[in-house]
Design a protein that fits this description.
The complex is a heterodimer. Chain A has eight helices and 13 strands. Chain A is α/β, with parallel strands linked by helices. Chain A has one domain: P-loop containing nucleotide triphosphate hydrolases (Rossmann fold, 3-Layer(aba) Sandwich), CATH 3.40.50.300. In chain A, helix 3 links the parallel strand 8 and strand 9. In chain A, helix 1 runs parallel beside helix 4. The relative contact order of chain A is 0.15. Chain B is α+β, with helices and mostly antiparallel strands. Chain B has a single domain, classed as hypothetical protein PF0899 fold (2-Layer Sandwich). Chain B has a three-stranded mixed beta sheet with strand order 2-1-6, covered by helices on one side. In chain B, strands 4-3-5 form a three-stranded antiparallel beta sheet, with no helix packed on it. The two termini of chain B are 31 Å apart. Classes of the chains: A alpha/beta, B alpha+beta. At the A-B interface, strand 6, helix 6 and helix 7 of A face helix 1 and strand 6 of B.
Amino acid sequence: MCSTCGCGHADMITITKIGDEENHEHFSLHAEEAVSHAHHHHHHESGQAHTHRHVHEDGTVAHHHHEVPTSRIVVDLEMDILHKNDLMASRNRGYFEALQIVALNLVSSPGSGKTSLLETTLTALSSEVNCHVIEGDQQSSNDAQRIAETQVPVVQINTGKACHLDAQMVQKAYKQLSPENRSILFIENVGNLVCPAMFDLGESARVVIISVTEGDDKPIKYPDMFHSADICVINKIDLLPYVQFDVDKVKEYALRVNPNLEFFELSATTGEGMESWYKWLHDRLRDAP
Amino acid sequence: MHELSIVLNILEIAEHQLKEHAGNKVDAIELEIGTMAGIEMDAFHFAWDAALPGSVLERCKLTIHSVDAKALCSECGYMYRMLEHYMACPACGSFRNSMIQGKELKVNSLEII
């Protein structure tokens, strides 16, 4: 049951703008009509058929066979299973680029400090830079409430049973936020080091966060995520004296998976190392296409 | 468990095609899945069996073509079969490479009756 309105939509996706909870939105991804229309060819193993041409909504011309209903039709599709997400991600990317918005997809295991990193970052930057946040969690708006304390506009996506954000959820969320030109949009993905790797949100950069309380071999245990990331933030470095975590080793493992990764070592709690992270954010915004 | 999302995406593609071709049922489906596509096959089959009863894909014949990942070493140009993302080039030991294949995640074809 939805905790805001009491409707039976717990297995659907809920998008709530903090401060405007009355107008939250439920939707089911599977119920939506596919947005794209692939080109394909098919042939008939039996029965009669005829062929004609018609123009699709997107302006492309396709050849079609129309078949008698009793026949067996083989449709050669060659379609990417995630084509719908990838199309939507491209649209998001175009929107972000047009408005010169730097959209960052923050991914990590649960508990690596994504929300704390955001709180510290927003507190430091929001007076100089327009920031917006999309929070993704399966349930609860706790994280969005924490972000709202920093006075930065935030939308909570509750994915219900889904273990990752996808491009369509993000699109619905930023439509509620209406981010300004030349701003940073932080998208905090569901805490999960596996599933979000597959779903392009249209982000400008993917930031994977690992904390020193985790194992330093995580990059080779969860290579897909490190392979798809652009930036690796190593968080909670203030705890290094108390844990068995080798920073050089984690970097070496991560670079094996992805030799192009760029690293930041910091502590969102003590502020150590945050300056280079802020500089990177400023540079990204300055260089936004 | 993103494999469930993948199965639901396949179902959506199948439903769309069925409607487009005014068919009753999908009798067979062929998929192409790369070994580096991020799909755990056990989880995929579990999600497939769990999600499809009562749907247009129920009892359809599933064929999966697995595509071995191949990488081209950026240092020495050697082409090799990639077993993990962090696999060094067997010829020169470099981790810099570009993946030639292995990320495939496609519906190749459907048979509609």
